[in-house]
Design goal:
- With 429 residues, this protein is mainly α.
- Helix content is 51%, strand content 7%.
- It has 18 helices and six strands.
- The chain has helices spanning 33-37, 73-79, 82-91, 97-108, 118-122, 131-144, 154-180, 193-202, 213-225, 233-243, 248-260, 267-280, 285-293, 314-330, 335-348, 351-355, 363-373, 380-401; strands at residues 4-9, 12-20, 26-28, 57-60, 65-68, 71-72.
- The structure holds acetyl coenzyme *A.
Length: 429
């Protein structure tokens, strides 16, 4: 028998269905609440609101578990590749060898962007943050591919998916090249996904460039661990924009903008800026932990805390190890890594952080690896966006396939009650 919860308001009782997810998570279904009671729920920041049913990613924030389509992130990082995981997220199952080859070919044959699109980059100042051209060019793709914009046409969607996956690294690398005044480097489809991105970022026409296979493997893994994280701010944005039946390019462009913020994907850049600030200030980690605890300072430990994880973010654990490997391989001794380690150690033993269950998140160590690889700070959120793209696509596609209604929250109005317009000469000073 279906379980229900009883809600009593003003002496009247209402039955609300209780739902259970595949990992025994329970939810109160309030779909009929307003119709039955006239009431809405208020949940600022959506901390208690399930916006959809989703079969893509499972997180247990208390236990520090992250799974894509049921597969633990640790297993995928150890054995899989970014494009295989992209397939898994978007289509629901791991591909056969044949399916993976076909998928890779479909993505790879879409790596170039239209030559006219390059002109957009000229409109940006050289010091533009690369997330701005990234979002703008992705949105502009919709004007170049008007043959594949219908969200309800599976063939259109398929084409748009491959175009986006193929082109995003090219769009990102061009943003960087523009910012440093170097010529755009065309994609080389003989290379793997991450390797191709590295050569578009770091090669220059007059010099030979050899992609380091270990670094490209690390970057592939970094993309993979960022690939989805269920209903976070940017994924929810993508779903919300898409719920109006906006095309996939427009929806992803909005997701890129949402990711940009320092409380979300911009935090990886924020972490390095914070570590540099601490280093410039004499490396006094305790001072900054104290500052983070002082609410009036407005300072937070970037890369710490998470809405869902109240335990170690499993991605942070993996990236901490990867950080040691990459820096060791490159023979880099980064003083900021030392500060990061001391900061983590101090915070994890501090009552304030323990009480609030604030642990390092994925952004805490990713930036140190990116820096060691030679990426400038403002490219960090862009790298996050490339990694997150399959998740956004999977979330958008699921929303379309579930025929979700347009996302349209309500509000508790707390403004003035009705009043009447006064002509200017009657309003006083
Ligand atoms: N430093 C100091 N205090 C913190 C931090 C932090 N990084 N994060 C949370 N807190 C404190 C809050 O001040 C609050 O304290 P209070 O209960 O005394 O008021 C308590 O911990 C709960 O914090 P909230 O802001 O309510 O938590 P929320 O779930 O809304 O925010 C967020 C989560 C945005 C990630 C937050 O922890 C934060 O700002 N972290 C720093 C930015 C960051 O690293 N973002 C990346 C997140 S991961 C990602 O997007 C990929």
């Amino acid at each position: 028998m279906a379980q229900t919860a009883q809600l009593t308001i003003d002496g009247r009782s209402y039955q609300l269905p209780l739902l259970t997810g595949s990992e025994e998570e329970r939810a109160l279904d309030i779909t009929g609440l307003r119709q039955q009671t006239g009431l809405i729920t208020l949940d600022s920041g959506y901390g208690n609101t399930g916006s959809c049913r989703s079969a893509i990613t499972f997180i247990d924030g208390e236990k520090g578990i992250l799974r894509y389509r049921g597969y633990p992130i640790e297993e995928l990082a150890a054995h899989s590749s970014f494009l295989e995981v992209a397939y898994l997220l978007i289509y629901g199952e791991l591909p056969s060898e044949q399916q993976l080859t076909a998928f890779k070919n479909n993505v790879t044959c879409h790596t170039m962007i239209h030559e006219d699109l390059k002109h957009i980059y000229q409109a940006f100042p050289p010091d533009a943050h690369p997330m701005a051209p990234l979002s703008a060019v992705v949105s502009a793709l919709s004007t170049f591919y008007q043959d594949a914009l219908d969200p309800l046409n599976p063939e259109h969607v398929e084409l748009a998916i491959c175009r986006l996956l193929g082109k995003l690294p090219t769009i990102a690398a061009y943003a960087y090249k523009k910012s440093i005044g170097q010529p755009f480097i065309y994609p080389d489809d003989r290379l793997e996904y991450a390797a191709n991105f590295l050569q578009m970022m770091f090669s220059v026409p007059p010099e030979p460039y050899q992609v380091d296979p270990e670094l490209s493997h690390t970057l592939d893994q970094l993309f993979l661990v960022h690939a989805d994280h269920e209903q976070n701010c940017s994924a929810s944005t993508v779903r919300m924009v898409g719920s109006s039946r906006a095309n996939l390019f427009a929806s992803i462009s909005a997701g890129i903008s949402a990711l940009w913020g320092p409380l979300h994907g911009g935090a990886n850049q924020g972490v390095l800026e914070m570590l540099q600030r601490i280093a410039d200030d004499g490396g006094n980690v305790e001072k900054y932990v104290a500052l983070a605890k002082d609410k009036s300072s407005g300072f937070r430990l970037m890369g710490f805390g998470h809405r869902v994880y109240k335990n170690f973010d499993p991605r942070a654990r993996m990236l901490k190890q990867e950080c040691d490997i990459v820096l060791g391989k490159l023979g880099i001794e980064d003083p900021l890594l030392d500060i990061a380690r001391r900061l983590e150690e101090t915070a994890l033993h501090d009552e304030y952080f323990i009480e609030r269950k604030l642990y390092p998140n994925v952004d805490f160590y990713s930036g140190t690896i990116y820096r060691a690889m030679g990426f400038p700070l403002n490219m960090f959120p862009v790298l996050f966006a490339i990694g997150r793209l399959p998740g956004w696509i999977a979330q958008w596609k699921e929303m379309i396939e579930h025929h979700e209604r347009i996302a349209r929250p309500r509000q508790l109005y707390v403004g003035p009650q009705q009043r009447h317009y006064l002509p200017l000469d009657q309003r006083g000073s």
